[in-house]
Design goal:
The complex is a heterodimer of chains A (about 110) and B (about 110). Chain A is an all-beta fold and about 110 residues long. Chain A is built from no helices and eleven strands. In chain A, strand 9 and strand 10 form a beta hairpin. Classes of the chains: A mainly beta (about 110), B mainly beta (about 110).
Chain lengths: ~110, ~110
């Protein structure tokens, strides 16, 4: 039972344009959401997070939007840069459940010059 | 320089053999985790520990064992009972509390000979 789903395995975007990565979840108990970026043969690095009391969080070129009624979150990268090419994972957790993150399958972003 | 160190980077297992993956952190984090990544799939939780001398099973604990004798160390043993051990293994750590962001090591690729 996949509680966190990223339905697009890959996304290709031109440099300078917007990248939008999507994530859906099924468990209404999730109240904390994170995005991680991962390069091949390396560990994921934290990118940005949002708690369920907010619907938007911004950090530089990265913005995460949360739509609780639709159980959907998205990561916007503007403008996209070639160095953003990586696999992006969304993850969700229930607060105070021991940091047990549930990860989506990942979306591979390719930003072309 | 604080961080999480996983070793070895690559590991090969023979049929019927137990192997142990090392994970050490000097971030003074309370909680530590082991995840497994298979191609095209998200990260799945194997075991986690929120405090020394205590650990809990994750979603896919069968065929694995852990110990947490020191705060800094959380080794994972892949036993012969794990019939499909080939995967990329990631160790992570975090503070317990309001922000449950995980910090990941660089991973160990385990393959079966």
């Amino acid at each position: 039972d996949q509680q966190v789903k990223q339905n697009s395995p890959s996304l290709s975007v031109q440099e300078g344009r917007i990248s939008i990565l999507n994530c859906d979840y099924t468990n209404s108990m999730f109240d904390y959401f994170l995005w991680y970026k991962k390069y091949p043969a390396e560990g994921p690095t934290f990118l940005i997070s949002i708690s369920s009391i907010k619907d938007k969080n911004e950090d530089g070129r990265f913005t995460v939007f949360l739509n609780k009624s639709a159980k959907h979150l998205s990561l916007h990268i503007v403008p996209s840069q070639p160095g953003d090419s990586a696999v992006y994972f969304c993850a969700a957790s229930v607060y105070n459940q021991g940091g047990k993150l549930i990860f989506g399958q990942g979306t591979e972003l390719s930003v072309k010059p | 320089d604080g961080g999480i160190t996983q070793s070895p980077k690559y590991l090969f297992r023979k049929e019927g053999q137990n192997v142990t993956l090392s994970c050490e952190q000097n971030l003074n984090h309370d909680a530590m985790y082991w995840y497994r990544q298979d191609p095209g799939q998200g990260l799945r939780l194997i075991y986690y520990s929120q405090i020394v001398n205590d650990f809990q099973k994750g979603d896919i604990a069968e065929g694995y064992s852990v110990s947490r004798e020191k705060k800094e160390s959380f080794p994972l043993t892949v036993t012969s009972a794990q019939k499909n051990p080939t995967a990329f293994y990631l160790c992570a750590s975090s503070w317990r509390g309001a922000d449950e962001k995980l910090f990941f090591g660089s991973g160990t690729q385990l393959s079966v000979l």
